[in-house]
Amino acid sequence: MPEIIALVVGVLALLVAPVAGLYLWPLGRQYPRVPSARGRDFAEASRAAEAVMVADAADPRVRPESRSRLLSHGHRTGRAVLLLHGYTLAPDQYDELAQEFFERGYNVWIPRAPQHGTVDRRAHHRVEAAELTAYADEALHVAAGLGDEVGVVGISGGAVLAAWLAQVHGDVVRHLLLLSPFFGPNPRQAPAFAVRPLIVLYGRRLLPDRVTSRGYSLSAVTQYLTIARGLPAPARRTGLRSVAVAISPLDAVVDPTAALTVARRIADANAIPLRVCTLPEALGIGHNTLDLAALGPGSSELHRLYVALYEGESAPTPGPVPTTSARRSARPTALRDR
């Protein structure tokens, strides 16, 4: 998104007088406490998930590989996990990690986000913050009926929704794993001073949408930023038992400082350590920290590491990643409590 810098500067230069208004304009959409996600039993939750999957299958606009999916043991388990995919992607982003959780005894729910996974590759441009939070809220209501202990994993924009759920449904969410969380754009792409104007101008659709070189709609990504800016401040003390973040130094999309700062606030509010995993540059993984195909057999180790992060393990001992010679010695950085 390097073009965003020039774009915002140009817009501000044209608007001169209203510039102050852009910074003073309330971003609003502060999301209040909502009813508990508890209440459904396993049968009800399974029927709700099945209804979503049937609707996806019956909708010709939804790509078959992008449909919502449920990995169920056929009964309520001790643990269930909700997996929220990233912006522009779909539930299949979690195929391998979902299987890892399932094999450990979890029931796993991976719903498709609104306007995503369709044959219209530009449909996600139309997504709105309100429908994203409604989607996340309903998804957690399903997951809460699938297991006694429930947690959420989110990647990129899905991580914003995961953090939102952990704060507004604090009586339900016990574990939180944020992968490449998009709490702010990378400063090399959009400087800090440009973020609020972007949210106001594009998030409120005051300007015609623009699409970046990565295929990201500014109107859409600012919906996620609107939710991020609306997270409770200060962070709420809830029932969280673990909070973790996994990031890559090669990620050119997210602001790494914001990724850690927001997660740390949530962890500190709950008096628990924030566990951070920084992936080695040698792995060659960028923003999509679930795109591990190039690692071959080594991808299984990272999936296990992500589960360990989620569960709050303090010192997993991952082995070497057996891929190309340039990557053979690369190991995920040991978990650090921050």
UniProtKB/TrEMBL annotation:
MF GO annotations: hydrolase activity
Positions of region (Disordered): 313-338
Q: Where is the AB hydrolase-1 domain?
A: 80-186
Is Hydrolase included in the keywords of this UniProt record?
Answer: yes
Question: What keywords are assigned to this protein?
Answer: Hydrolase
Transmembrane segment boundaries: none
Superkingdom of source: Bacteria
- Pfam families in alphabetical order: Abhydrolase_1
Gene3D superfamilies recorded:
alpha/beta hydrolase
Which InterPro entries does the protein's record reference? Answer: AB_hydrolase_1, AB_hydrolase_fold, AB_hydrolase_sf
Would the keyword RNA-binding turn up in this protein's UniProt record? no
State what protein this is by name: Alpha/beta hydrolase
Organism listed in the record: Micromonospora parastrephiae
Taxonomic classification, please? Bacteria, Bacillati, Actinomycetota, Actinomycetes, Micromonosporales
